[in-house]
Amino acid sequence: GAGVSQSPRYKVAKRGQDVALRCDPISGHVSLFWYQQALGQGPEFLTYFQNEAQLDKSGLPSDRFFAERPEGSVSTLKIQRTQQEDSAVYLCASSSPSQGDYGYTFGSGTRLTVV
Amino acid sequence: GESVGLHLPTLSVQEGDNSIINCAYSNSASDYFIWYKQESGKGPQFIIDIRSNMDKRQGQRVTVLLNKTVKHLSLQIAATQPGDSAVYFCAENMDTGRRALTFGSGTRLQVQP
Questions:
Q1: Do A40 and B6 touch (CB under 8 A)?
Q2: Cβ contacts of A5 on chain B, cutoff 8 Å
Q3: Which of B99, B105, B108 is the mutation pick for testing A, counting most A CBs within 10 A?
Q4: Mind listing the pLDDT tens digit for each residue in B64-98?
Q5: What angle do CA B9, B12, B15 make, to 5 degrees?
């Protein structure tokens, strides 16, 4: 497709469950980013991939958060043993070299609610 | 649709008026700044960017002003339209060696018809 696609659009998880959030970047985009957006706040950086290499994971809040991009295209953000504070919108973004270092295109996000 | 921010500062303007949204950024070493627009239920959408070696940049109906002395960024929208209603975020690259952006807390713009 023409944009960044994220699925599911909404996810409700019981506390303690594991979840997996998927991101399909724009075809050919080398760089992929995950951000977390709590209600009423700006997005916060989680992690960054260049192709299949995870070059920056400094924003992952705990070892319960894990991201992968094994073939340099689709990426999955996994959260283990979800907690209520994990409730947020998880945004994926991708970019191509022609967009510069910060020219992201964001997807619409996955809203995760932990109950 | 879902709200992107329930307790954000809000700027209310009349359709056709000019809007000015302000942002105080954090790091004097940041060299790149972006304004994003986020509509309810959608991801942030790029509006305009500016590098630290500039103090003004213009796009279509939008102008970004950068004042490095006081670490202030503003977004001016000319002839504001109902479709401009959204939450607006400024973002900066606080660590120029990394690809991560640091976003501000956002301002909600409401355009009254």
A1: yes
A2: none
A3: B99
A4: 999 999 999 999 999 999 999 999 999 998 887 88
A5: 150
